Amino acid sequence: MSQPTNWGVPRTDGGQGYTPEQFAERTDDSFDALLSLHKGNSRPAYAEAGTLWLDDSATPWVLKLFDGSDDITINTIDPTGNVSRSADGFPADTVMLFYQASAPTGWTKLTTHNNKALRVVSGTGGGSGGSVAFTTAFASNRAVSGTVAAHVLTTDEIPAHFHGAGTLTAASAGAHTHPIRTRVGGTAGQGDSVARDAEFTLTTSNTAIESAGNHTHTITGNTASAGGGQGHNHGWSGSVNLAVQYIDVILAKKD
To answer: Considering only CA atoms, which of 43, 39, 30 is closest in space to residue 4?
Structure first.
């Protein structure tokens, strides 16, 4: 501590009988106080209006001016980082951006906003908005949801192809007979005579062709080619929510 118990150089011993050693010691203490800016953890008892003293009750140290009733902070001194900061350089509650792991000495880290983008605005700053976290909105493997519209292929859009016969069969007409029309020569029989090569029809039941019964006919070959193999499109409806959360900041420079 560099604040002497008794401040100042005694002009007389005041009847206390100062020895030369005691006089020199008190003088040295007073000079030490001056050289160290009266450093201590509280204002020195002998302070008067206008006294500068260094408060080392915490780190950083604080240089103060006693105005006769109160102490006015002049600046702060970081004895570890060897940095002095003006007390009125930034008013209390000033918010700034820092690209470092933790808040600098004399500043408090704010955790109100997290994982948001910065939006520079020319209007009023300090606002916020958005609904999607920054890393979520711009994730490399983010899924996109939506629906693909249905599309009926036209003939021109399906690939060109043939259809084989497969198991197709001709329809059966069922059991049936066939009447016969023919030319004969000579005697027709039963005493009737007909001209040679005359045409007549056999219509009696015993002249019918014998029925072959029900039957089917196999179809062979291919159908005609169909399809053009043309491309086609499907409509898509959906959305990707890129309403990234943000806070509004402004750009300014110190005058």
So the answer is: 30
Q: How far is 33 from 31, CA to CA, in rounded Å?
A: 5
Residue with tokens 């918010």: 95
For 24-53, write each residue's pLDDT tens digit: 888 888 888 888 899 999 999 989 999 999
Whether the Cβ atoms of residue 53 and residue 39 lie closer than 8 Å to each other? yes
Count of other CB atoms within 10 angstroms of residue 38: 24
28: left (phi over 0), alpha (psi -120 to 50) or beta: alpha
Residue 20, preceding peptide bond in cis (omega within 30° of 0):
no
Helix (H, G, I), strand (E, B) or coil at 76: strand
Lay out the sheet containing 52-55: strands in order across.
52-55, 61-66, 71-78, 83-86
| Entry field: residues in the chain | 255
Q: pTM for the whole thing?
A: 0.38
Q: Which of helix, strand or coil describes residue 178?
A: coil
* Residues 244 and 134: beta-carbon distance below 8 Å: yes
d(CA 187, CA 111): 127
| Of residues 118, 149, 158, 95, the one with CA closest to residue 244 | 118
Sequence-distant (6+) residues with CB within 8 A of 147 are 236, 237, 238
Q: List Cα–Cα distances, 240 to 58, 135, 237, in angstroms.
A: 52, 14, 11
Query: Nearest to residue 150, comparing CAs of 63, 31, 234, 29?
Result: 234
Give me the chain's average pLDDT, please.
Answer: 78
Domain range annotation of the chain: 117-151+237-255
